[in-house]
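Record format v2
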Amino acid sequence: MNPWSQFAPELVTDLYELTMAASYLREDMFGDATFSLFIRAYPPGRSYFVAAGLEHFIDLVTAFRFEGDSLQFLASTGKFTTDFIEFLATLRFTGSIRALPEGRIFFADEPLLEVTAPIIEAQIVETLAINVLQLESLIASKAARIVHAAHGRSVIDFSLRRTHGVDAGLKAARASYLAGFTGTSNVLAGKIYGIPIFGTMAHSYVTSFEHELESFRAFARAFPDSTVLLIDTYDTLKGALKAVQVAREMAAEGKALRGVRLDSGDLATLSRGVRRILDDAGLNHVEILASGSLDELKIQDLRDAGAAIDAYAVGTHMGVSADAPYFDIAYKLVEYEDRPVLKLSSGKRTWVGRKQVFRHYDDQGKMLEDHLCLADEEHPGGEGLLEEVVRKGKRVKPAAPLQAIRQRVEGDFQRLPEACKHLREPQRYPVRISPSLQDLEEQTTRKVRREELG
Amino acid sequence: MNPWSQFAPELVTDLYELTMAASYLREDMFGDATFSLFIRAYPPGRSYFVAAGLEHFIDLVTAFRFEGDSLQFLASTGKFTTDFIEFLATLRFTGSIRALPEGRIFFADEPLLEVTAPIIEAQIVETLAINVLQLESLIASKAARIVHAAHGRSVIDFSLRRTHGVDAGLKAARASYLAGFTGTSNVLAGKIYGIPIFGTMAHSYVTSFEHELESFRAFARAFPDSTVLLIDTYDTLKGALKAVQVAREMAAEGKALRGVRLDSGDLATLSRGVRRILDDAGLNHVEILASGSLDELKIQDLRDAGAAIDAYAVGTHMGVSADAPYFDIAYKLVEYEDRPVLKLSSGKRTWVGRKQVFRHYDDQGKMLEDHLCLADEEHPGGEGLLEEVVRKGKRVKPAAPLQAIRQRVEGDFQRLPEACKHLREPQRYPVRISPSLQDLEEQTTRKVRREELG
């Protein structure tokens, strides 16, 4: 029994997507609509986002259809006419999608995705689009900060147990890997995405043996080529001495202890103490892995405090993006039948029309500024970031392999200005609004005010 | 194509569960172990938890098995012996589970779940147990606060788009419903769990029409018996006037406008203004629904400010438990082969042994205090909270229907002392540790210190 096989993608939707669709059908409204998905504002201390989730969204949209069970359920609610249920049975996504490729760095107000399709199709995938793209971009953005803080040391995803469900656990493993993590503890992510998997032992393993030393020996017997010992169950420095003893016993068998893990206490001081114990025993090759409520700020503090840590395992804080567990992300209608549209609701500006983002670089190749433009504007010298990924309901090019997406993140991160990477007080990156877009926004606002408020 | 059907429950695990299992197999360690799942500490401003997720966990554990694909993947990693892979193929959960029924209110340090089984079985379900029980308890606990703040007004779950993935969206709908929400926008949750579904229109619907008034009329045509109009797209009070116009047109057809929704601006002031406009038009029956970044504190503030709101829709802040997106939750070995065990890692106390929680009430039926005891202690006059739910790998009684769980939450919440319900500065509820448990904890600590640190 697999409870997740009940998750029919076409019902991963808010009911209003369907009530609106029913009304559009009734009114014969089939005109092309463009919706834009973007993040309105930065969470505190944040200054950039990393695009992720697009490939999953494309897979879902290009295969979108209402199957028998789902149609039966909708009919059973009594909310819809038979005409509408029959219409849903034939509904496919036939539109086009322009989007930032996964792994690109982007900024507030810039569309991550623009969907152009007959309005029912473009509207009905709203909930799915936000659900998929927010989570993966949220995690990739958090993970990029952690990779930056780790300053070249390995970081491993340990988040599965505290992610919000199993779907989130999988997405966290993938999104953190594409942002530069070395691997994950998540076995299913290893299977589905081909991400390297890591893991050794829990405190329960150590305590299940009569003595810590016995547990270390037993683990070395089972995994002589990849022994990493968790040494803080009772006392970290005493644990390190026992690890040395086991390392010597392993050496007598021609094997080498790979590493030790610290999971509690003052990691900066303890890691230096452990390093000294290991080095004094000639075990300079044994790596020290640290875990335990880590995030990018703690990792930076550990580095500043001269911790002797070779690799970090990061769980909860990355897996739920604890400091910013959601983005102010929206999927907004910006154009219907070539008419730019907007709402005036206070404090929630949407830039009208189909758009493109053009990025400019300085002569060292660093990002200089982005220009948010109308899609049909010419903008010489800028790199257009949104690419067409779906046309007439079909994928335009194959999904990029994860390794290519990792390289994209790395490339964009190198080009991001250093001041924007600061973990606590980052500088804002400039996003300029093109004069044509500003004009259209103002004209549209004036028109709407005149017609609706006048 | 359903991407979630790839989610094999047996691989929803951290790799270390499998490496430990491989070592236990190698060492012939098949003794009974008891693991205890509990929350160490309250997030800021919190004072109680609501148990949820147990039924899902029972379903997964009682059906737990490694299938062909999963075994092939594990074999392909090169990390495991053929003996171990063959062992996994035969592995079933044969142990017992004692747990708090879903819907019970509980407190820090109290076990939500105790699993007793041969150590490999009890260990291998760790990741799944934490993943499932944390999320649903997290959301139910948050939702109970929101229901309390709403003071008898309806609350509807609008969180699906911003939950962490689709699994979380489903769980949020179920957990908030059992905590007292009226329903959800989540169509799939309606299908899977039978939760009432709600939804009307987005701003995009309004803006897709040339004029707001036309959009209201079109919606009333499609759903004349359940018309709720979103009136803040351009100007809330002007939107209310248009709603009045549509309500009059509907009345001429023998239909009644059901409600209006406000999604932005100063909801307290605007809702009173809208109420006045509706009442002046004789539309006293038309309900006002409010949404837009609501949580329990904003709802309380709205009530304090005299808002005229009949129902609340709550999304993101509930769906990701934004103020506390994770619990400090752990699944710890507390006993192996009748030997109580613990770790000494700083700041992370675990109470040893198999336990029971006994709850005492005052003569008004209000909760007085809980006693955390050893499972075999007599404790006359207390209500034992943990119940056996799985014995020898089989479910002991059928899953409770959602309605029964809702009543449990309601019952426990009525009995919770008022001071513990305070939304900003709640009082701590007393959880006493029994003398026998304290003794055993101290003896075990002394023994471990002597043997491991001496």
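Chain A has two domains: 3-139+325-453, 149-319.
The mean pLDDT of chain A is 97.
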